[in-house]
Amino acid sequence: QVQLAESGGGLVQAGGSLRLSCIISGRTFSTYDMGWFRQAPGKEREFVAFINWNGGITSYADSVKGRFTISRDNAQNTVYLQMNSLKPGDAAVYSCAARTTGVFDVWGQGTQVTVSS
User: Fold this and answer.
1) Which of 9, 15, 35, 106 is the most exposed place for a label (fewest CB within 10 A)?
2) CA gap 48, 61 in Å, rounded
3) How far lies 81's CA from each of 42, 101, 102, in Å?
């Protein structure tokens, strides 16, 4: 059974940085595409970043492109989201997800990111 656990959220001033981590349990992590998503209060969950199984392909939401970087370490069963130049609009609960079938079907519990202006 695949389980995800995020960490690294917190309170940061606008312009600051945070690095989120998502540790995945399961022997076949290296075969999964992974994604980061976020949900702010009163808003729908939105896509943030994607990385394919070997890290060779990444994609980003336009709102974070150039500021956020997704990466993975398959030896450590971990996917990261480096967030720089944070804005108040980036505040949300960030969740990682694994695509073990054709869709993102395994989700973590999320980690809160708060950005003060």
Assistant:
1) 15
2) 5
3) 23, 22, 22
